[in-house]
Amino acid sequence: MGTFKENLVVIPTYNEIENIEAILRKVFSLSHPFDVLVVDDGSPDGTALKVKQLQLEYAERLHLLERKGKQGLGTAYIHGFQWAIGEGYRYLFEMDADFSHNPEDLVRLYTACAKDGNDVAIGSRYIKGVNVVNWPIGRVLMSYFAGVYVRFIMGMEIMDPTAGFICYKREVLQGIGLNDIRFVGYAFQIEMKFNTWKYGYEMTEVPIIFTDRTKGVSKMSTKIFKEAVLGVLYLKIRSFFKTYIRKTDAQVAPISPIAELV
Fold first, then answer.
1. CB 85 within 8 A of CB 173
2. Which of 3, 41, 87, 123 is the most exposed place for a label (fewest CB within 10 A)?
3. Helical segments of 63-185, H only
4. CA-closest candidate to residue 125, choices 113, 115, 134
């Protein structure tokens, strides 16, 4: 591919009607340009419809993938990444729709990759103390010690391995093989970072302040947390039997028929 597009932010949504317009307008107001792809899992509250309305205002910059039913965070990002790679974007970002991630920090993540030479930049809640606002202490402790657990089992020195605010160079997503990713919840975030590390890509953590949502409902559940705990053990054991060779000529799988680009 000859000409690359620059930046695409992938935002998975399910029932984010209270946040989606504000988060999109904020991203599009930034001094550095970012395009956005919303991956909506059939939100019954009209999230996708609102995105379609905003597409009339932000033509060429706002894209929408609609999927039928809740299929998990991990598959939403993989669908989004596959589409973005096919469209020729150079830097791909993960970000929540609920303002727990400050859109202004997108510029700092971009700088860490595009100008500082890193392959992946992670918006980290724990690289400089504990920078979490409005979470109950129980959830803060659960999240923090999840990182301790991951570092102990995997040997990967990432302070915030469950972080979901990230910038990837396209070469990383091609090289690790998105079709090999198996998990869909918090374990998805851990698996992506673990594979990135095992394949030898350069990662850095950029300190951010994480603010819990004030509108809408959290998607966190006991099932997702359990998947992360058991997934770490699975990933570590599997790594003993896997050879990590970058896929230099990786084929990007077509978007599943269950997702439709609008």
1. yes
2. 3
3. 73-87, 105-114, 137-154, 170-176
4. 134
